[in-house]
Design brief:
Elements: H1 16-20, E1 32-44, E2 49-60, E3 67-72, E4 76-83, E5 89-91, E6 94-96, E7 105-110, E8 117-123, E9 131-134, E10 146-149, E11 169-177, E12 183-186, E13 199-209, E14 215-218, E15 221-226, E16 229-233, H2 235-244, H3 248-259, E17 268-271, E18 280-281, E19 286-289, H4 302-309, E20 317-319, H5 326-344, H6 346-363, H7 388-405, H8 407-420, E21 424-426, H9 428-440, H10 449-457, H11 471-485, H12 500-508, H13 516-526, H14 534-547, H15 553-562, H16 566-576, H17 580-593, H18 599-615
Parallel strand pairs: 1-11, 16-17, 17-19, 20-21
Antiparallel strand pairs: 1-2, 2-8, 3-7, 4-5, 4-8, 6-7, 9-10, 10-14, 11-13, 12-14, 15-16, 18-19
Helix pairs in contact: 3-4, 3-5, 4-5, 5-6, 5-7, 6-7, 6-12, 7-8, 8-9, 12-14, 14-15, 14-16, 15-17, 16-18
Amino acid sequence: MRPLHALAFGALVLPLSAFAADPHSYAQPDQVRVTHLDLDLKVDFPHKQLDGQATLKLDWKDAKAQSLVLDTRDLKIASVEGIDAAGKASALKYALAPRDKELGSKLTIATPQHPAQVRIVYSTVPTASGLQWLTPEQTADQKLPFMFSQSESIHARSWVPLQDSPAIRFTYNAHVTAPKDVRVVMSALNDAKHPLNGDYAFAQPHPIPSYLLAIAAGDIAAKETGPRSAVYAEPSVVGKAAKEFEDTEKLIAATEKLYGPYAWDRYDLLVLPPSFPFGGMENPNMTFATPTLLVGDKSLVSVISHELAHSWSGNLVTSAAWRDIWLNEGFTTYVQGRITEAVYGKALADEEALISAHGLQKTVKTIPENAQRLAPKPGIGADDSISEVPYDKGSWFLRTLEERFGRETFDAYLKGYFAHFAFQSITTEQMLDYLKANLFDKNPGKMSWDEVKQWVYEPGIPKDAPLPDSPRFNAIDQERASFLAGSLAADKLDAKGWNTQEWMYFLDGLPDVTPLDKIKQIDAAWHLTGTPNAEIGMRWYSHAIAAGDKDVWSAAAEHMARIGRLYLTMPLYKTFAKTPEGLAYAEQVYAKARSGYHPMTQEAVEAVFAKARKNAGK
Ligand SMILES: [Zn+2]
């Protein structure tokens, strides 16, 4: 996750209409809306670019509209033409505004005749913020280059010119060519049996927001995991991935039982090379996932439950702007917990809910006040709105609603909510109106509306927010306390049977700076240095570095170089950056790892270094 920057609009009072528009898009959907996209692209590995054209079908809303305004970032536009209802094309005048650092370049196309379609011929640049180009050496099998997209939040505009706002939904078709041995996949219906002929066609028949546009190309094999699911990954990874995710059909069936039919037909998964900056990305029909989930014991499958849950919360019912992102992430984190409970049991679901809640309690004070609100006031950045708050505070709010209204009532309500708003993009206020009419007014006396307003519009976590009880975590709390007090030796910790979540919980509860001798004792007994489990590794190395244990530095460096997932690698950079010697070491690690990192990871690491150097007065 990216560090939050100072909020720009703190003292400004904006008119109410400004709250309704999406401040992260130049699009003017009240004048014209894109309803369908036809993409024709060539994947050009030697030049690290996508080359081709985008044809946008338009629905004119305002008879007086003079132009079509699109979002772009660093696109090279070759030509723009309008196509009338009879299919006749003619060149259109256009202007590309200077680049805004956050929003990119506004593309204004003169369209006084209101063409039925507009076609833009363009190519991307090698540094496109939404694409990563990997050399063969940066992949697992080292045979072919690899390319993948990450469009959320506002990066689709760096590879397709469009109205890049989650409020605008469109269907799409794509024709993509690539070198012959390369497989191309997209956030659409994919065919695992498609021959490797370098020529692919895709259809996404459901209207989706632009941040769910996705593409990947590389040495990709496929393996079925169920009647409507398959895993895609590099050939040496695909077998392991199919085993780790063999419960996919069980997860889909459990979610359908709770919230109604899966609306998208197939649910496939693509396991990416380790530089993928996130745990998973819910691209429709084809979740993109980090290989750090492949730990061999299914203990991190909850990330897949999370991405699958987005098929209801996020992809089906979508937040209309980045300010409302908790409608995607809070609801999804809640549904993820329910899937985990249904398939793997309540004990594990409660453990994950506690890790999420305790993590939020620990970090919430470091988050700027406005970003602590589920629905922040204007002025928050599109990527910066994605902190722990929408996920962990959002899901905590929904668990509170479930507790107050009872599971049966709340489940029926939520199922109705997904059906009511299916394939729509909505604001926090639309959700609240529906909540009031369909849950609160129908079941009076369970919870006050003031409490809802506090959860949604106030910073911090409401007092007495309910938490589940976990006997296993309670036992770990006692053992940790005895170990720290010196009455229990490290090798006497009852940790042999701890699952990943229990190790995470043990480590999360250690003091920020644990005495070095305690760190040494834990490692001697449990050999955490060098762990292949990156969730444990991230926590372990952070504690060991903070304690001053230089013996772990090289293993920590290996973890940082191997993993580009922000959540698992940034804490180590931040901990190293706290001392001058650590900072110098982290800079060396980064110099070697940089070329393998996603542009988002590069930007995040460089921001940590800049801040540390500034604090040191350099
Ligand atoms: Zn999510």
